[in-house]
Structure formats: structure tokens, C-alpha cells
Amino acid sequence: MEQLNRGAFNVTRFFGERQEGSKYAYDAENIITSSQREISLKYGESPFGPPSEFEHLFKKSIDEGVLLKSMSEYRLSEPEEAIENVKTRFGLGGNADVIFSGGGSDEILERLTFMLHHGNRKRRIFGLPPHFPDIVNYTNRIHAAGKDPQGVIYGPIDAPTRSSITEGLAIAKERRKKNSSQQNITYYISNPGNPLGNTTSLNAIEDFVDFCADRKNPDFVIIDEAFGDVLPDEESAINLIEEKGNLSVIRSYSKTLGLPGERIGYMATNKNIGDHYRTFRRPFDISASQKAAANIISNPEIIDSHLKIVRPKIKALKSEFIDELKKNDIEILPTDNRVPIFCIRGKDSNLYENLRKLNLHTVPGHGFYSTNKEFTNQVVRLNLPKTKQDLEESVKRISFAYHYDIGTLT
Predict the structure, then answer these.
(1) How far is 168 from 101, CA to CA, in rounded Å?
(2) Residue 348: inside a domain, yes or no?
(3) pLDDT, tens digit, 9 for 90 and up, residues 121-160
(4) Count of beta carbons in the 10 Å neighbourhood of residue 201
(5) 292 Cβ partners below 8 Å, 6+ apart?
(6) Residue 360 and residue 320 in one domain
(7) DSSP state of 18
(8) Sign of CA dihedral 100, 143, 131, 38
(9) Are residues 362 and 285 in the same domain?
(10) CATH number at residue 34
(11) What pLDDT sits at residue 239?
């Protein structure tokens, strides 16, 4: 490697032949100047915001005094309109239950994990890595709360990073067959996957859920669809919940539907699981403003018109972003272009820090290390930029950080 001095940075250039058509951003002075402006590709929110009708209808609930009246009262009530809207959207019947949370989908995941293992601390949790890491923290807290040191244990399904979700499920089935005597297993599957933004089919999910059910004591399956609104509704595991007694599906309005600040999540499951879950939730689980927001944004007509616009926009923007990165020889980990997040892998362990020094904020790979040991700061998760200018500037900074080892600021 060759040390180069460029303005305020000491940089190290990686030797290697440029591929034809490559446009590495080697102009350090220009990069340093432009990187004074902060760009965040960190959070998984939609670059296109909430539905256009939402702001009007939410303001209407304020102007008419409905929201203020609700805020001034104690009410142990569900967002009934939102619950019916979800059932209508997915064609759910009487054996389905929908439960909302004011702490986001991650709060539901924590409480569901506790419910499944309450009084059953021998239960094992397996996740298909890499995935949302907080499930590991939840199981650790349950473990710490128990007296049995061999209590609830998390373990990743030992599948290679480049395996698809479908391949990972097949590996999980084979491992389960070899360990058929183990009882009380919960499987945690993200679809779409986080951080990779990869997906699998509903048929693959259903096959796995059925495999887990085919036991004297069925294994339980949690499907995390926090990013699920980017996919057609017919691909959601919510369509399976009435028939499957060992399945819960978790969703969020923080991602594709653009309300991350409201922290509204919901779980769709069958009636028996829903009734049991309610005994573990807080009495005032969702605020008046969250209830009003959920009732509005869950409207199937509003969602349908919004997603018809947003889904193709996300796919086109991600495709363009990835194409530009590939022109600069950036390694993209397996992903589905319908999902707004994806990962890139750097040449050494400094990619996350290099990007941070260039004022480009991402999710560090080490945040997922507890679920997959290949995820270090050599890997970063990216969300989509919000403007064309941010896309072009992000490509420049990523290319520079990828092909140079940026030293300390002088």
C-alpha cells in the first residue's frame, strides 16, 4: 500500500488494477470539502416519508378535538379501527388476532420472547443470521432473570453469510432432524432480512412452519416483517396465521410507511396466542396519539395507494445505487432490490470508521456480530439516500473510503 497526503487526511491507497469503466473517487481534496455536509444512511426509514393523506387526516383529528379529548382520558382501549384495517387488508377471519404496541415492533418481539419462555427456561432460541441483534439481548435478560444458569439460550443457525434465507431454513431443518430430542425451540426469522435486505418466498416460510409444527411439542416460529410492506401483501406470512398455531408475525409502521417517530408496531397471530400475549403486556400499551396515527395509516386504501407509488420507487432507487457502487468495484452482499437496506463489505476492518470520518453515517457490522461472527466493521449496512444529490455524493464517499484507508484528521 502507498501512503498519500491529501489535504486534511493521510490516506493509504490500495494497489490494484482499475477495471474498465471504474470511477473511483480519488480526488481527496474534493471529497474532504464535500464531506463537511452530513449524510445519514443509517436508519431504515423510508426516503419517501408517510402517505400524503396522513398529514391531512392527522391534523383533522387535532382540529376537531378528537385527539385532545382522547389524550385527557385514561382508556384501556385498543386501536380498534387499526385492528380491523389490518384484518381487512390481509383478509383475516375470526381465528386471527392483531395486537398493537406503542413501543414499536421490537417491544412486541421482547414481550413475545418473554411470554414464550416464562416458566420454561430450558427453551432454546435460534435465529437465522445475520439478523436484528436485539433478540440476543432479550434472551440474555430472560436468562439473567432466572435462577437456572442453563436457562434460555440464544444460538444462531449455523448458515454461511452468503446463504439465502431459503438455504438457511433448509440448514435449520437438517440440524433439527439431527437433534430431534431437543424440546422447546423458538426460531426467529427476518423476512425481509435485516441487515442484508434479502427475502424468501411464502412457500418456503410455510414449509418451515409446518416442519416445526410436526412434533409432539411444536417448535414456535417468529417472522419479523418490519420491512414487509415493500413486498406484495400476498407474500406476507400474515396470510398463514389463522391456520398455524405455532406462528406470530411482527410488523412496523416505522419503515416503508414512514412513521419511525411514532414507534407503532403490531403482531398478527392466531387467537390463542393473542389471548395469552395480552396477559404479558402493559395496561396502557399505546398512547392516544399513537392510536390516532395507527387508525389513520392502517387504512387499506391509503396504504394501497401509497405502496403503489413507493414500492417501485424504492426498487428503482436501490437498483441505481447498487449499480453505481458496482461500477466502483464495491462488494455488495446478497440482497433483494425491493428492500431499502443492504450491506457492503470493505477490504479491511476500517470501512465503517472511514465512512464516519467522511461524515457518511451507516450501521456498523459489529452491531450484528452477536448473530454472525463475519460481521465486523469491515461490513456496513446502508439505507437509501433521500435525494439524487445524496446518492451521487454517497457513491463518491463510499468509493473513496473503500479504496483508501483514511488515517487521522490533521
Answers:
(1) 30
(2) yes
(3) 567 888 888 888 777 777 666 555 554 434 446 677 766 6
(4) 12
(5) 58, 61, 66, 67, 70
(6) yes
(7) P
(8) positive
(9) no
(10) 3.90.1150.10
(11) 97
